[in-house]
Write a structure and sequence with these properties.
By secondary structure, this protein is an alpha+beta fold. It has four helices and 23 strands. The protein has one domain: Maltoporin, Chain A.
Length: 550
């Protein structure tokens, strides 16, 4: 009883603290977007510049302030500067009037990697100034941020996670798909996401565990075509053993409230119980039963059944299949994950049908799908290596072969309402002595949940949109200091309403990288991109760049 009261009281206090921090973050983000807009028009004074700098750096400072009291043992702070020159024959990606230009991109940035006994922080931030030799009216600045931090506030009980991202996101599935952020188009907008998530976990009655997490997040963009929104989420679980060693149980509950600046608010509450039986060390099945109350598809709350089953199969240390299927208010929902590892390769497959509030790229603080794949291969091949040593090897492999850390081939797009998303992805990663190959194929189909008020989006004219894409990246280490990589990709967006648009973009990229010195890298890229559909265009470009870390 005392433990329960302490847990509730502690979480209430932390929730209030989280909301206050998030309000500050959201206000800082709005001030930053307003000042950045003034900067492009030349109306920024010294005071505004100062507020701009404070707003941009708020999140990193907040995470560091969380981490410093926990006596971090290892901090690596690396300032970075990069300069790129792009010569393109179609800077505006126009189908009728292609314009050639020379684009200079200057990117000062910082990388922070800190880890201690009770805190960690990983942050990468860059501010890119684009300068156009002929079309100077298009000069602009773009932010890029990926940050995640964790603090163990009370030893082995209360933890706080915080994340932050700033990225370029597409407004429409059928608009232009830009091959580079140096291109100028009106289908992208800078989008930021910040979250803070305190949680507690522990054990009572010897064999029973509990977990309770609260997450507050805010998402905003610079475009008036996309609604900002704030999400508050509670997730709780109690699980334990029974007198029968093969039988386990759990009680789960979640509540999500999404507050849109334009349009009505949405909420979804789920609670249920799971009973699992393990036939042997390799096979476990489970039964799921519960209820769900939501207003995602109606103006009033409706209650539906939420039941199904689960499967966990691990026939060997190299192979794993995990799947759940439930019957929910929108029909059948599922989550499937499969992976099979060979000595120098990895095959993965994921599939899901679930509610989505934003594209995967928004709020994603992971290292990237290619990074994760090669981490699994290297970790399995070197069981004695520490996580830090494995991360160093993975980073070196990606740099030496010219392979991007993220292998995403479908960009997604912003919507002003929740959607029902049916997602599939299969990928293959091969790691050789001097060669790497990654193949990724993705299909993402979305349907709107409910009507939207105030703002329109792609679903105003399409009741279903499907995006398909594939990508192949071959990387070859030429010498100990240089590499060559070839990337081929395609993305297609299709609507299912009569007369819906259909857009397909194909690209080929050849990249040469070289390490000039231990802290300086040079690169040169040749690309050719062709797009057909609503916004047809073709573009050829040559890019060269230098980056230096201090």
């Amino acid at each position: 009883m005392v433990t329960g009261m302490a847990m509730v009281t502690g979480m209430a206090m932390v929730r209030q603290m989280a909301l206050e921090r998030l309000r500050c973050a959201r206000g800082a983000g709005r001030r930053w977007m307003r000042v950045a807009s003034d900067a492009r028009s030349g109306g920024v004074g010294r005071g505004d510049r100062r507020r701009l700098e404070v707003s941009v750096s708020w999140f990193g400072c907040a995470l560091m302030c969380l981490a410093i009291p926990a006596h971090a043992e290892k901090w690596q702070i690396t300032p970075v500067i990069a300069v790129n020159e792009t010569l393109t024959n179609n800077v505006f990606l126009s189908s009728t009037d292609p314009t050639s230009d020379l684009v200079t991109a200057v990117t000062p940035g910082i990388s922070i990697d800190g880890k201690g006994a009770r805190a960690s922080l990983r942050l990468n931030y860059g501010l890119t100034q684009y300068l156009y030799a002929h079309e100077s009216a298009s000069n602009n600045r773009q932010n890029a941020l990926t940050a995640t931090g964790t603090l163990e506030a009370l030893e082995d009980w209360l933890f706080i996670d915080a994340t932050g991202t700033i990225s370029q996101q597409y407004l429409s599935a059928f608009g232009k798909v830009a091959p580079s952020t140096a291109n100028v188009d009106n289908n992208r907008t800078e989008t930021s996401n910040y979250s803070i998530s305190p949680y507690v976990k522990g054990r009572f009655l010897t064999s029973t565990e509990y977990f309770l997490r609260y997450t507050a997040s805010t998402t905003s963009s610079k475009s008036n075509l996309a609604s900002d929104f704030t999400t508050n989420q509670w997730v709780g679980r109690i699980n334990g053993l029974t007198r029968f060693s093969a039988v386990t149980w759990s009680l789960d509950a979640s509540k999500v409230n999404t507050d849109y600046d334009v349009g009505r608010d949405r909420n979804d509450t789920r609670y249920g119980a799971t009973l699992a039986y393990r036939f042997n060390p390799q096979l476990q099945v489970s039964l799921i039963g519960g209820r769900e109350t939501t207003n995602l598809v109606s103006l009033q709350d409706e209650t539906h059944g939420d039941s199904g089953f689960g499967l966990l199969w691990t026939p060997s240390p190299r192979t794993k299949l995990e799947a759940t299927a439930t019957r929910r208010f929108f029909g059948n929902g599922y989550q499937v994950g499969f992976s099979h590892r060979m000595p120098r390769s990895l095959v993965t497959y994921t599939a899901s049908r679930n509610v989505s509030y934003q594209p995967q790229g928004v709020g994603n603080t992971g290292q990237g799908s290619n990074y994760d794949a090669y981490y699994s291969i290297i970790a399995a091949s070197n069981p004695g290596l520490s996580p830090d040593a494995i991360r160093a090897q993975v980073t070196q492999v990606l740099q030496d072969r010219g392979v991007p850390a993220d292998g995403s081939v479908v960009n997604g797009f912003l919507a002003n309402r929740p959607t029902l998303q049916e997602y599939q992805q299969i990928s293959l990663a091969l790691l050789g002595v001097r060669n790497t190959v990654t193949l990724t194929a993705t299909e993402n189909e979305q349907q709107p949940l409910g009507v939207v008020s105030g703002l329109t989006d792609d679903f105003s004219l399409n009741n279903r949109i499907r995006q398909r894409g594939f990508g192949v990246v071959w990387g070859h280490q030429l010498t100990g200091f240089s590499s060559l990589s070839l990337s081929l990709n395609q993305q297609q967006s299709v609507g299912f309403t009569a007369g819906s648009p259909d857009t397909k973009t194909q690209g080929a990229y050849l990249l040469l990288t070289s390490r000039v010195s231990p802290k300086t890298n040079a690169n040169m890229t040749v690309r050719r991109v062709i797009s057909d559909g609503v916004t047809s265009y073709s573009e050829s470009a040559l890019t060269g760049g230098l980056s230096h870390s201090f």
